[in-house]
Amino acid sequence: MKTITTGILGAGRIGRLHGDNILRMNGVDLKAVADPYADFGSWPEAAVATGEDPDLVLGDDSIEAVLICSPTPTHADFIERAAAAGKHIFCEKPIDLEPDRIRRTLAAVDQAGVKLQVGFNRRFDPTFASVKQAVDDGKIGEIHLVKITSRDPEAPPADYVATSGGIFLDMTIHDFDMVRFLSGAEIVEVHAYGAVLIDPAIGTAGDVDTAVTTLRLSNGALAVIENSRQAVYGYDQRVEVFGSKGSAEAFNEVPAQVRLSTADGIRFEKPLYFFLERYQTSFVAELEAFFSCVRENRPPPVDGRDGLMSVVAGLAATRSRAVNRPVVVESPGETP
Amino acid sequence: MNRTTVGLIGAGRIGRLHAENLARRIPEADLRAVASPHLDEVWAETLGIPVRSTEIDAVIDDPSIEAVVIATSSDLHVELIRRAAAAGKHIFCEKPVAFEPGPIEEILEITAKASLRLQVGYNRRFDPSLLKASEAIRSGEIGDIHTVRVTSRDPIPPDIDFVRRSGGLFFDFTVHDFDTVRFLSGAEIVELFAVGEVLVDPRIGAAGDIDTAVITLRLSNGALAVIDNSRHAVYGQDQRFEVFGSAGSIAVDNTRATFVTTSTTDGVVSEKLHGSFGDRYQEAFVAEMRGFLRSVREGGPVAVGAEDALAAVRAAHAARRSLAENRPIRLVEAVETVEAVGAGSSR
């Protein structure tokens, strides 16, 4: 198998996660990691060049593929620079918060003829992939309703919220992508209700911490997403696709499949704590998929258009909550 | 025991269910009479009901009858309540009592003046699981309420004649869910947004109704709620409830006729869900009638009254209007302009 040489831009939590996964992978070599703010300390535990300058990665001609794990405002620029340098790109979501900026970036990627995959890792979760397979196999017939529950275990600090783009672009964006993935349809209209019920500081920062979003899909089906920034019992990630022949559901995963029955009742383990635990497998699988597309010259399974559509849906939801009206989702326009 | 004499008006699906409970499972009831235009004499005789008639007067004019159970089609409810109240009888009426808020308000007034008990058939409030969930929520086990979730899907779509008379999905079906949201949250519905489609049967659409819907709601305690409905879940009566709050969540899952799991090389299989609401809520139907008869005997308040019917119908009006206009509707707004709105329809 041909070895692919990679570099990472951004050494925060997600950058290090990908880096460690690559170091354990066969056929992929991690050559450099750049981050102007990171204190690398003892990370990574391998012979990898580290430094502040992105050119450590972008300027190295031996690096064939880059992973962009830096803060969101830098994504589009790094994608364009990587594309200009002829590198294949894996970029964390969202590409940008401005659809027009995303379109320009995608055009640059297209022109350069490089591959771009967006980090919607949940598509690679074996449980959700199995729901998708059941849908694709026609086991539930025509889709009538997609239902997603997505609750974080702990609310982020209000200063994170202030720069996050808001709950719909920061959190629900994954769920918009999951609706598109499971249904195979586009989101055509969005209505969102939101409330500040967990932390008043989130409200002061202009955001909400609890939301219920209704969607109309291009295949005529309906969808509903329920979000909370804080479920005290852990990361609550459930999906259901309901159709003419039945329904396919995915439940929470637990650290141990133990049922403890006592005089006080019957007790199960809480869900896995957060996304690093719950989606561990999917983070490896999404990169493996990306590298095999690079190796075999196939289009990536989650592309720039997917990155654009989830942002467009997030913006529609943000606007819907602001004006308290359903909002028609902007059509994708000319995308590669 | 001091038995209460009961007369039943209407012996369709739900009327027969009540009759069988009253005759066989509720010792404190004396089911004296049944009246229904298409009465099945053999059935009524088997249950040992002494007075069997196709005339409603046989129940209303019988002075020995203390309480009537009204289980006719919805359009007759109001007139029958008026007549029963004028005859001094306590009343159990199936939901939705009426399609318009006005007549329900009138009924509230009449029954209050006459000191008569009027209970409405929101049977879910008597389901042991929902009751327990409601008590746990009230005692603060999950802290402040953030979201309420109701999944309610029927196993078989109704026939088209019924759809035409039903008042539409929101009035016939979702009213139960509106009531359940109020019951579990202890809060009022302030505003809602409804989307609906015809995905099950085009004839439902031709009759001016929808068969699939998602309704999101704002509640008076600041919480949000979501209801999803389908007229056709092929795997059975799907009834799930979840209330999520600051200290955790409480869920009521589906029940089944049996609890057998078969594991083979093909997978792990358990039985489908119940085939009808009668089976799913069997205990609740008995318990609601016993609760009603207790209120009649002891003169106490009913667990679910005309105020609750009014709130659910107001929500149904708001949902119909929200669907028609494709925008969120505040409940006060829906009631003020209710006359101006046409029947529910799909976009």
Most residues in contact, chain pair and counts: A-B, 36 and 37 residues
Estimate the global geometry of chain A from the Cα principal axes.
globular
Supply the number of helical segments of chain B.
Answer: 13
Oligomer: heterodimer
CATH architectural category of the largest domain in chain A: 2-Layer Sandwich
Number of domains of chain A: 2
The CATH topology name of the largest domain in chain B reads Dihydrodipicolinate Reductase, domain 2
The share of residues in helices of chain A is 25-40%
Please tell me how large the radius of gyration of chain B is. 20 Å
- Describe the strand arrangement of the main beta sheet of chain B, using strand numbers: 12-11-7-10-9-8-15
Beginning-to-end CA distance, first to last residue of chain B: 56 Å
Give helix and strand order of chain B, one letter per element, not per position: EHEHEHEHEHEHEHHEHEEEEEEHHHEH
The low-pLDDT segments of chain A are none
CATH topology grouping of the largest domain in chain A: Dihydrodipicolinate Reductase, domain 2
Instruction: Count the E strands of chain A.
Output: 15
Write down the CATH class of the largest domain in chain B: Alpha Beta
Strand content of chain B: 15-25%
Strand numbers in spatial order across the main sheet of chain A: 12-11-7-10-9-8-15
Number of helices of chain A: 12
- Helical content of chain B (DSSP H or I, runs of 4+): 25-40%
Rounded Rg of chain A: 20 Å
